[in-house]
Amino acid sequence: MAEKAQYIATGRRKNSVARVRLFDGGSGKITVNERPFNAYFPRESNRLIIMQPLETAKSESKVDIFINVNGGGLSGQAGAVKQGIARALVKMDANLKADIKKAGFLTRDSRKRERKKYGRKRARRRFQFTKR
Fold first, then answer.
1. Burial of 75 (0-12, 13-18, 19+ CB in 10 A)
2. Do residues 111 and 79 touch, judged by C-beta distance below 8 A?
3. SS3 sequence, 32-92?
4. Which of 13, 8, 10, 31 is nearest to 108 (CA)?
5. Is the pTM of this model over 0.70?
6. Neighbours of 64 (CB within 10 A)
7. 1-60 pLDDT tens trace
8. Cα angle, residue 32 at apex, residues 28 and 33 outer, rounded to 5°
9. How far apart are CA 53 and CA 122, in angstroms?
10. pLDDT tens, 65-84?
11. Does CATH number 3.30.230.10 belong to domain 6-103?
């Protein structure tokens, strides 16, 4: 059996880190933390976010993807996986870089959770004011 070409990339979002291994010449199988893609991300919106770079590159059924993701919640993990897949696709085919970059998939979303401040309930939420 011929060895498939493997492309490794990392994606980050909030506190999530996704390590993506993309195999060229696959059947479109996506595995996340050794579980099927649909089982790990039950929310349809997260699955659509993850599939965006593959749809842009028109390679949904041409590659196999193995993803190891940890940290954060499911939405942050979905964003990290999206960036990791986009970076791996660019490594696989440099001609895709212009389209993927234009769509904004290579840019890291640097927004993070704001820290809780003292004298407040959360980062900005105050305790209820009582007049009397």
1. middle
2. no
3. ECCEEHHHHCCCHHHHHHHHHHHHHHCCCCCEEEEEEEECCCHHHHHHHHHHHHHHHHHHH
4. 13
5. yes
6. 18
7. 456 789 999 999 999 999 999 998 888 899 999 999 999 999 999 999 999 999 999 988
8. 145
9. 35
10. 999 999 999 999 999 999 99
11. yes
Q: What is the token pair recorded at 17?
A: 């880190």
- Residue showing tokens 């696709």: 89
Task: Read off the tokens for 111.
Answer: 């927004």
Q: Where are the domains of the chain?
A: 6-103
The alpha carbon dihedral of 19, 38, 14, 107 has a sign of positive
Half-sphere exposure of 90 (CA within 13 A, CB side): 21
Q: List 99's β-bridge partners, or say none.
A: none
Residues written for the chain? 132
Name the one residue in this structure whose structure tokens are 């927004």. Answer: 111
